């Protein structure tokens, strides 16, 4: 989802920003960078960072990264359908409204209901997890797709809504929206006709914004600030919403990241209310939906603590459709874009997370306990306890990960923090106090275990001014975003000091004022704007999906991104979405032969409605609205993608 309407209340912005250091201007070569890193890592114990290279370059190992991407680049453009390179094909895997269960009603767009939607695939698919299942006896490949349904486009989704909106949002229409939020687990199999859902699979499940019981865990569970009339225990929440990107853990659970939950609440707090500062910092109540007209839990004047029960990372075990999802409060409360994880060499699990708002922060969580490859049940509690860190990007090329721990530093009662629950519920406020670096909307963050690399998508921030620049966000009016690469020393993802550099500044390289920094090998079709989601393929190569590339005059899509060697910073267009859509969740199967892609809000645009969308993709039937859909891209004849 694009958040161009979002405003920030981050107080650091008003006061001062740092100057741009030379470090961001220096495009270090990979070998030179590694050499510098190796030298400085050894010196960090004394707190002395230097760019001196004391290790001979010949001793620096070559990266295991693969060579250039091998496919025929597609052209820039924007039309009513999607495009893949010559030699590739797409499967329509599952659309909004498709049946999941044997008793699911057929999609009937003119007669939508809560009851039907609860049994059908939800709206606006975003994150895609894929948990492989054993290949069937007949050799058919299969797995569980774990799909977030981030939000609904009210005017596009239901008929007859636009003309009298918001009065048209009856209680039933709101319930249909709530049922379309959340997530789906759906078994999929690779048939002769491509990837298809297994309707009626015992794994299939719908999770929604209002019907799925969830357990709060970690330091904020049961705290007074998460208690409501419906739940005086503060331990049980009905539902999850605004699940944007997410993650799949090494133990096969699915992380659903709750993002723009502020928009689902209406109302105002009475003056001087103790939650006033907290809600203001989060943009609550945003009033993007009408649910609060019919349900008091979405009206903060009636239930001021309800927003504190959202904005978390939710962990779901897709192997057990009866399991209770868990809100992991130890990972902090903010506008979670995603939550991808990695096991550090010391056995701790590290989860990287962006807070997608202009001028907000990058975080990582380090588990207290260690991953045990032989004990999945124990691993399922790893996210219950650990340390949350927020990032400060320094001019010298180092990231300082600062712990958000009650009682440490500024996180004390004098500053309004009386417990670790307070720190986690108000993670943004805690980050403000510690001097975290205000970023240009951190979206997906993807760690790659082998070289110890972490890629951070900064989607855009057109509100940053010249006097608000900092080393990691060096462009004013950053309309097209950039990508930062973090390198964890010796692959120690638990490190509190890491190296960083900018991989590329996005946008049109032919327009000097844009200030893009693509490798000159990038073609006229190859550059893009507004990176959002990303994926690392089985060869360790980076693929970037966009949300907002339409601002450059071309559809959103997926680009293959070189991160190593001479071609570092070269981008190549692989997939183009239909008009109005953003592209989410790129997810490769482990063999690299299938790429699942979320096409979200096709047919959207200024003035677009159910009756008048910008495309009717993928059905192209008059009377059928555009349908958010998961597709799979494969090479005709088989084989790894882009190889
Ligand atoms: Fe839901 Fe940050 O995109
Ligand atoms: Ca976005
Ligand atoms: Ca996103
Ligand atoms: Ca991702």
Helix share bin: under 10%
Structural class: mainly beta
Q: Number of folding domains?
A: 2
Calculate Rg over CA atoms: 23 Å
Q: Please, how many helices?
A: 8
| Major sheet size, sense and barrel closure | 9 strands, antiparallel
Q: How would you describe this structure to a colleague?
A:
With 643 residues, this protein is mainly β. The chain folds into two domains: 547 residues, no CATH class; 49 residues, no CATH class. The protein has a nine-stranded antiparallel beta sheet with strand order 13-14-16-17-18-23-22-21-20, with no helix packed on it. The chain has a six-stranded mixed beta sheet with strand order 8-7-12-11-10-9, with no helix packed on it. A hairpin with a 5-residue loop joins strand 28 and strand 29. The longest helix has 14 residues. The radius of gyration is 23 Å and the shape is globular. 56% of the residues are buried. Bound molecules: MU-OXO-diiron and calcium ion (3 copies). MU-OXO-diiron binds next to loops.
């Amino acid at each position: 989802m694009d958040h161009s309407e979002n405003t920030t209340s981050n107080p650091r912005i008003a006061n001062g920003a740092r100057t741009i250091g030379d470090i961001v201007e220096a495009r270090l070569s990979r070998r030179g960078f590694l050499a510098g890193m190796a030298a400085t890592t050894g010196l960090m114990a004394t707190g002395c960072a230097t760019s001196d290279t004391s290790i001979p370059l010949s001793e620096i190992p070559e990266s295991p990264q693969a060579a250039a991407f091998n496919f025929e680049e597609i052209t820039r453009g924007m039309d009513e359908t999607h495009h893949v390179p010559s030699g590739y094909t797409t499967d329509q895997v599952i659309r909004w409204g498709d049946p999941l269960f044997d008793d699911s009603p057929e999609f009937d767009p003119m007669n939508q209901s809560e009851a039907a939607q609860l049994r059908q695939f939800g709206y606006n698919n975003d994150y895609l997890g894929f948990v492989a299942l054993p290949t069937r006896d007949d050799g058919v490949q299969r797995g569980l797709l774990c799909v977030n349904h981030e939000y609904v486009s009210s005017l596009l989704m239901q008929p007859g809504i636009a003309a009298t909106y918001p009065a048209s949002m009856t209680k039933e229409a709101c319930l249909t929206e709530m049922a379309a939020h959340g997530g789906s687990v759906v078994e999929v199999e690779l048939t002769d006709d491509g990837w298809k859902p297994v309707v009626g699979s015992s794994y299939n499940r719908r999770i929604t914004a209002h019907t799925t019981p969830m357990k709060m865990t970690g330091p904020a569970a049961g705290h007074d600030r998460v208690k409501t009339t419906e739940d005086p225990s503060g331990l049980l929440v009905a539902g999850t919403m605004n699940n944007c990107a997410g993650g799949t853990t090494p133990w096969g659970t699915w992380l659903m990241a709750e993002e723009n939950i502020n928009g689902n609440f209406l109302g105002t707090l009475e003056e001087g209310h103790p939650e006033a500062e907290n809600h203001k910092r989060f943009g609550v109540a945003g009033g993007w939906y009408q649910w609060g007209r019919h349900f008091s839990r979405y009206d903060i004047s009636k239930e001021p603590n309800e927003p504190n029960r959202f904005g978390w990372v939710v962990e779901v075990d897709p192997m057990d459709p009866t399991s209770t999802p868990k809100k992991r409060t130890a990972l902090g409360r903010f506008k979670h874009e995603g939550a991808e994880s990695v096991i550090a060499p010391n056995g701790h699990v590290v989860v990287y997370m962006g807070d997608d708002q202009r001028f907000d922060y990058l975080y990582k969580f380090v588990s207290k306990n260690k991953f045990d490859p032989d004990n999945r049940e124990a691993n399922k509690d790893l996210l219950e306890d650990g340390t949350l860190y927020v990032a400060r990007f320094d001019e010298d090329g180092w990231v300082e990960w600062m712990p958000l721990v009650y009682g440490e530093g500024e996180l004390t009662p004098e500053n309004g923090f009386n417990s670790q629950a307070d720190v986690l519920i108000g993670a943004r406020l805690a980050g403000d106090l510690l001097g975290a670096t205000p970023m240009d909307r951190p979206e997906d963050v993807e760690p790659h275990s082998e070289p110890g690399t972490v890629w951070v998508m900064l989607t855009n921030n057109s509100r940053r001014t010249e006097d608000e620049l900092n080393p990691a966000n060096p462009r004013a009016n950053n309309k097209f975003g950039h990508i930062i690469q973090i390198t964890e020393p010796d692959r120690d993802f638990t490190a509190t000091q890491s190296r960083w550099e900018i991989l590329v500044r996005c946008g049109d390289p032919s327009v000097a004022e844009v200030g893009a920094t693509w490798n000159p090998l990038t073609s006229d079709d190859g550059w893009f704007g507004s990176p959002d989601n990303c994926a690392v393929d089985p060869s360790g190569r980076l693929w970037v999906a966009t949300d907002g590339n339409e601002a450059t005059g071309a559809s959103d899509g997926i680009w293959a991104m070189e991160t190593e060697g001479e071609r570092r910073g070269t981008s190549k267009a692989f997939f183009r979405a239909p008009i109005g859509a953003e592209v989410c969740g790129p997810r490769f199967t482990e063999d690299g032969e299938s790429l699942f892609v979320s096409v979200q809000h096709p047919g959207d645009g200024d003035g677009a409605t159910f009756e008048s969308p910008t495309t009717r993709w993928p059905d192209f039937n008059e009377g059928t609205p555009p349908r958010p859909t998961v597709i799979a891209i494969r090479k005709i004849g088989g084989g790894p993608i882009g190889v």
